[in-house]
Amino acid sequence: MYSRKNALHYHAMVLPGILLLLLFSVVPIGFAVIAFQNFKPGRGITGSEWVGLENFHYLFQLPDSRLIFFNTIFLAVLKIAANLIVPLVFALLLNEVRVRFLRKSIQTIVYLPHFISWVLLATIFFDVFSLEGIVNQALGLFGIDPVLFYASNRWFPAIIVATDVWKEFGFNAIVYLAALTGINPALYEAAGIDGASRFRQLWHVTLPGVKTTVILLATLALGNVMNANFDQIFNMYNPLVYQSSDIIDTYVYRVGLNDLQYSLGTAVGLLKSVVSFILVVLSYVLASRFAGYRIF
Amino acid sequence: MVGQNSVRNRIIDGSILAVLFLITIACLIPLLHTVAVSFSDKTAADAGRVFLTPIKATTASYAKVLDDGQFFQAFLISVQRVLLGGLLNFVLTVMMAFALSKDAKQFPMRNVYMWFLVFTMLFSGGIVPWFMTIKYYGLLDSIWALVLPHAVQVFNVILLMNFFRNLPKELNEAAEMDGAGPWYVMVRLYIPLSLPSIATVTLFSIVFHWNSFFDGLVLMSKQDHYPLQTYIQTLVTQISAQAMTSMSPEELAAAMAVSNRTFNAAKIIVSMIPILLIYPFIQRFFIHGITLGSVKE
Amino acid sequence: MKPKLWLATSMALVMALSACSNGGGNNAPVNEGGNSGNAGNNGKAANNSSATGEGNAEAGAKAGDDLAYEKVAEPITVNIGFRAPDDKLPEGESNDNNIVSRYLESITGIKVVHTWEAKGEDPFKQKVNLAIASNDLPDALVVDRNQLRKLIDNDMLEDLTEEYEKYGSQLVKDMYDSTKGLALADATVDDKLYGLPNVAIEADAPSLLWIRQDWLDKLKLPAPKTLADLEKIADAFANQDPDGNGKKDTVGLTGDKMVVYGQKPNPNGFDTIFSAFRAFPKNWIKDASGNVVYGSVQPENKEALTKLADWYKRGLIDPQFALYKETQEPIVANKTGLFFGPWWMPYWPLADSVVNDTKADWKAYAAPTDESGKFVTHMAPVTDRYLVVRKGYEHPEAVVKLLNAFTRLERRQDPNAAEVKKLDDFAAETGVHVRNFYPFDLLLDYSDAVVQRYDNVQKALKGELDPNSFDPDMKLVYDYTVTEKENPKKNMDAWKAAKAYELGGGVLFGTDMEKVYSVFYGMTRSMEMKWTTLEKLENETFLKIIVGDLPVSAFDDFAAQWHKLGGDQITKEVADIVNGK
């Protein structure tokens, strides 16, 4: 059903956005060549010395580079997984609630933590996990000795992931809820008449209805595989748990703050971009091959 | 058998509600804590003595946040930003999502555009190049610097495009048989049928514009041009350890006098309120299956 | 709000005062300073006659100062990056057009335009960094040490050597001279002066021991002197329920996750414990044989770490000290009665502690001492901010002239009495700090001002000096001290100022301490690449040893590794710079 005239209209719909992206996204990416320079602001891009991959080299030969790369990816992957699954489960549960007032209230409340900044949450969680905090008091009831969670490299990553999920699941659930809204009620009616149990309805109607959304979000989330959330970790960590929670961003922040190393910062950004691009493309290919679903 | 089923259903309903209730409480407590802190006396809050009820209740922190005309000026700029940015996002997102929801047979260049979008979403040049670019366009210190660079939210486009693609194709074909052009199909068919998803991406875009503070800080030259979140951030900026050692004692004392939990909490509450007010309106579109049921298949 | 400047004015006056009373002044090479300081003390009575007096003071200085304060012939515009204050100006006034800016423009003929403004430490820093990165500096602005280095490296700054020599006022030069050339040397590379530095207060460096005297008395413990005393007190505070509530909810000594601050300490640094062992971590010092060495890798640190690790293990140090997001929490919450901090602790965080528990009675001690009974402390750099001029700006002298003008005003040596009175009245009426609207946030100070100030307030209290001769700011602190004496802990603003000077300033004044100066504060080439790694290694090792994650012997591994990972090279570079290349 190809119509040349329609295609022309489609071009017209896309072009304004493409133009703006060219101006505000692509042009700055061009400037990112300073990642391959020893960039001297006084001399500009044309006058600065080209150093090839030296900045990347530096990044990889840092004594801590293996640790911070590992921490970054480890934490990010855990978060990606948890942030996909928890909101989905929550949305499915909420979808089962028939009382509209309750549904709306719950939905409103759980998305509120998204708006509280990590600066403040960090202090709240510190109290929660402190020696005298709720968690340790609860453990005390079972006769367990208090644990310094914030100083423990075993517990701290778990706390990082859990608090992140807690903050974002309500907001992340919004997409799923929109997708659930789009499922044809007639399908449920049909299933109901067939006598399908609620669990079977969930399995045969609801889940297929949101499958594409899950695949879509999972693929897009892979773009974050190198972003373990600077804001959160920066506000919550301390030197005792650097070993388990120092990530690329926090590390570079400390380096960059001391030395104004523009090229290094840009190199890190570029590296992260390349990795996420590769992963997203990979998962796109996988999704279209195995689930038969083309995301883009 | 029907009875058995309904008993089971009720048990399931009950346990689901119980779980959701617990989750809700877990989300509510820190929030109530924030409210309590925002209304508490500074020293009590700093000592960590406030839990869910304010101690020595005071509105001092709010007075400080709302202190002068600049708050409302910043508020207006934020509203302006959300309106401009939200509208621009809405128009561009819907247009792009619609065109890109066509397959490559109907829109031959589609895949090229699509990968271009994905590329721009995942690559960034970093803050310095971004700043230089906007300076080069002469947009510094203008509201457009806050709006234009974020005019296309690729994530939202992809999201909405996927929702559009789930609409039945026959719809489109039938309309085109009747001689309707793409613009007509988009406005009269796709948009009304996708209100929940459009509401979702619009919410994302409003929240994004409302919450952004960093670009305001970097791109605006005068405080009078700061949007609300930027203004609120500069009322008290987080004092880093590095800053602490370079500040003079009295500067630090002054900064600390205001940089306390009560003030931070009040800032958060104040900046959340507008979003809270908007949400119920947007939520209306999430009511189960509003129009979709009638047309799908 | 920058009370620092407020303090400085008063300090200038104290200086001037002592110059008068001592008939010369012992620290500031003032020639006409005594004269003009006098004019300032007499407040508004001083008028044009004092200006004449100043002008005639010395033939040599006359030409210099005439040039320094001369209004420029042709109007000049200078574009600056402005650090916006919190002060609320009245309707109609703005950051770049207000009574202060108009006055300065009227006497200098220089129009100051704000290319951009930023409020607060971090936003300002952010803006400066971006300006540097995009090579888009305003004509003049204030930068920090790292930014200065970057700017010099990139050849983006104008050489100010000649302009400073020619246009710098005697007052400004005197104050730089009071640092024995250290301040200017800090901004000089290859004999070229690239920035006009501030002069910081020396009193900020020593970290004193602050104790809840009421707890100490309750447990019948003597005032601390040695490490052993401190140990005993920490043990008692942690275990003997000093707050008397029947619960074990107090801790001993508190600390900070940075362990030591090294230069200007904040609350909870262990600096003083290290210096009691004659260890000076984070400072470049000369060892016994005169070689330049890095303080953190010297064997003395191991003794201090052994002690601290032992204390931590025995629960004498707050078990959660490394975890607090904000280091002052246990102090404010009155969980502790024992911590280290500089003289100004009453301003913050002690005021909050007292509000939460009015029984809290804090005292400062110069303790613990080293083996020979002497209180030892490292010192801080004399300068940390620099006024710089963009390379290629046509009128660098305008920047020097602005500095002259507002420094003279700040020191209350401005001869235009009528105008100064207007500014004073404006400040009194609106609560706006005049100094916050100088174009540059750069304060020149005599470096030993705090103790001088303490001394003068005490003298006034004894009736040896007349407080009515104080200027308004100075009078305020005197009044606060009196208020606090009459009605203790009723007015917390009074408490803060009174106690900071009485306790902090008093101990500094009354203690004969050994001051160890770092020989180097900047960065070298190799540091640029390696310092972050070394510093991280250092910080983590120290912290982990104290909390017991690492044995004390790990210090030796750290020291060895430090040398291997570039420390040796850096030490050599630093030594080269210190020994004059």
UniProtKB/TrEMBL annotation, chain A:
Gene3D superfamilies assigned to the protein according to its UniProt record, in alphabetical order: MetI-like
Entries under InterPro entries matching the protein: MetI-like, MetI-like_sf, UgpAE/MalFG_permease
PROSITE patterns: ABC_TM1
Transmembrane stretches, start-end: 12-36, 68-94, 106-126, 173-190, 202-222, 262-287
Entry's localization field: Cell membrane
Membrane topology: Multi-pass membrane protein
Alphabetized UniProt keyword annotations: Cell membrane, Membrane, Transmembrane, Transmembrane helix, Transport
Main location: membrane
One protein family per Pfam: BPD_transp_1
Signal peptide (from-to): none
GO cellular component: plasma membrane
Domain ABC transmembrane type-1 as annotated: residue spans: 69-283
BP GO terms, sorted: transmembrane transport
Family membership noted in the UniProt record: Belongs to the binding-protein-dependent transport system permease family.
Listed name of the protein: Putative aldouronate transport system permease protein
Organism, scientific name: Paenibacillus methanolicus
TrEMBL record, chain B:
InterPro entries, sorted: MetI-like, MetI-like_sf
Membrane topology: Multi-pass membrane protein
Keywords: Cell membrane, Membrane, Transmembrane, Transmembrane helix, Transport
CDD domains: TM_PBP2
GO BP, sorted A to Z: transmembrane transport
Annotated ABC transmembrane type-1 domain residues: 75-282
Family: Belongs to the binding-protein-dependent transport system permease family.
Protein name as annotated: Putative aldouronate transport system permease protein
UniProt lineage: Bacteria, Bacillati, Bacillota, Bacilli, Bacillales
UniProtKB/TrEMBL annotation, chain C:
InterPro entries, A to Z: Bact_solute-bd_prot1
Region described as Disordered: spans on this chain: 31-59
Assigned keywords, A-Z: Signal
PROSITE patterns: PROKAR_LIPOPROTEIN
Signal peptide: 1-23
Low complexity biased stretches: 38-59
Protein name stated in the entry: Putative aldouronate transport system substrate-binding protein
